[in-house]
Specification:
binds heme C
Length: 131
């Protein structure tokens, strides 16, 4: 019975979602910044330390930043030559499959689910991820 109630609640939430945030998010639902932060902590933070100095560059303030622009980071030539600006759209492409977006990049992690990416990018763009 608990499961049935859970499923009904979830269905209600899914039905309510698009009406609330129809213009927002790649998957059409309002992005969930808290979920995005959880994904960041699980999948990204081990390399992308907030204070820098990890295997990858800090991602604090990454949205709107030029690619390969954190001083002192040993970027690959592939990413240095990509000349991107990390808009939400570009981050979405990159995180779908980094090797397709920037062939030769050393960034190994993809986020296959569109809603997970939308939530993650909403977190990266949020005040919680500003310097
Ligand atoms: C195993 C380590 C590792 C993990 C985990 C990882 N990354 Fe990276 N990431 C890197 C490295 C290394 C680079 C630099 C790539 C290059 O120079 O080609 C990078 C580069 C990036 C860049 C480009 C930054 C810039 O300054 O241009 C973005 C954006 C990025 N990663 C996002 C993420 C996100 C979001 C996650 C979690 C879903 C993640 N990464 C998980 C290692 C990692």
């Amino acid at each position: 019975m608990r499961h049935l109630i859970g499923a009904a609640t979830l269905a209600a939430a899914l039905l309510a979602g698009p009406a609330v945030g129809s213009a927002q998010g790649a998957a059409g639902a309002k992005p969930d910044i808290g979920h995005g932060e959880g994904t960041f902590n699980d999948m990204c933070m081990s390399c992308h330390l907030k204070e820098g100095g990890g295997q990858g560059p800090t991602l604090v303030g990454v949205v709107g930043r030029a690619s390969a622009a954190v001083p002192g980071v040993m970027y690959t030539k592939a990413l240095q030559d990509a000349h991107l600006t990390w808009t939400p759209q570009k981050l979405d492409e990159f995180l779908t499959n980094p090797q397709v977006a920037v062939p030769g990049t050393a960034m190994p992690m993809s986020v296959p689910d569109a809603k997970d990416r939308a939530d993650l990018i909403a977190y990266l763009a949020s005040p919680a991820n500003k310097p």
